[in-house]
Design brief:
313 residues; alpha/beta; 10 helices; 7 strands; globular; MeTrfase_capping; metal ion binding
């Protein structure tokens, strides 16, 4: 997890102290199994504790079917957790963030990392459109993120802050995206996956461009101040390890595992009429195709950092 958000959140907590004399309430939207949240919040809260003993209440949220057992284990047992800090209390809610998760005007500092690019439903698309970016997906994403932000802004107190880190669209970011789709297209060419099945190979997320973000944020003129909207290139950490003298075999294994995990559910979903044995066989063949695409060229992703402040209801 990139720690560039740490000084931003630290500054927001300091500013939030001016808004209330009571506990500061923090929200973490899309906590998953907790690892990334702990890496960020341990550092932020350690730094905050160096100058303030103000009580802190943290609300972690994710879907009902999130691996909550793993999450609570991470909070309570990970060496990266904040659980040992005094006067810090945490809660969790299993509920979609497309709904309101906290009472109005109740959150001082909000944070969401690599969660808000997930769509609320599979978008429509034309017969020739297969990939992450196409017009129907763009409109679905703009609607989804607008609705999501509407709820988050309701939950913020006036003067409260939200930081969003999310995957971004960039024309230079084609290597990793092609690894999600080309292996399955190759299986179609080999007659292993049908064209009809491939048409149902949907990706559950969308990477917003700067222009799309500006369109979304424009819906809240007068309610928020946009403090920052930046797009950043991030090099895959496995690739960084490799070019700095790491093992090529280890790099290939890590990248394969990363891509294969992301491909598995969309692939299984498009093979819904197949037996479990057939799905697993085709998945293994897909992994073989992924391996063929891994070389020594740079692997990167782009992400957006959006920082807003609520200024009015």
């Amino acid at each position: 997890m990139d720690l560039t958000a740490v000084p931003i959140l630290m500054e927001h907590l300091k500013e939030a102290e001016k808004l209330t004399s009571e506990a500061l309430r923090i929200a973490d939207y899309g906590c998953s199994e907790g690892y990334n949240s702990m890496v960020i919040f341990r550092k932020v809260l350690e730094d905050f504790r160096s100058h303030s003993n103000r009580p802190l209440s943290i609300l972690h949220t994710d879907l009902p079917d999130n691996n909550w057992s793993c999450f609570f284990n991470t909070v309570n047992n990970s060496e990266n957790s904040y659980h040992w800090l005094e006067n810090v209390f945490y809660y969790a809610v299993g509920k979609s963030f497309y709904r309101q998760l906290s009472p109005p005007n109740s959150i001082h500092v909000a944070f969401s990392a690599f969660a808000m690019h997930y769509l609320s439903k599979i978008p429509d698309r034309g017969q020739q459109e297969v990939g992450i970016s196409y017009p129907e997906a763009s409109e679905q994403a703009i609607t989804d993120v607008t609705n999501n932000l509407m709820n988050r802004i309701k939950e913020l107190v006036i003067g409260g802050f939200m930081t969003i880190i999310v995957a971004a669209k960039d024309e230079g970011n084609k290597k990793i995206v092609s690894m999600y789709f080309e292996p399955v297209k190759n299986l179609v060419a080999q007659g292993i996956v049908t064209a009809e099945e491939y048409q149902n190979y949907y990706w559950p997320s969308y990477h917003l461009s700067r222009e799309e973000w500006e369109r979304i944020l424009g819906n809240f003129n007068g309610k928020i101040e946009v403090l920052s909207l930046e797009m950043t290139k991030g090099i895959c950490p496995f690739y960084t390890e490799y070019i700095n003298g790491g093992s090529e075999d280890e790099y290939r294994e890590k990248l394969l595992s990363f891509v294969a995990v992301l491909v598995r559910n969309p692939l299984y979903n498009c093979l819904s009429s197949r037996s479990d044995e057939e799905k697993e066989r085709i998945y293994q063949l897909c992994k073989n195709e992924i391996v063929k695409m891994i070389d020594n060229t740079e692997v990167c992703m782009y992400y957006s950092t959006v920082v807003i402040k609520k200024i009015a209801e």
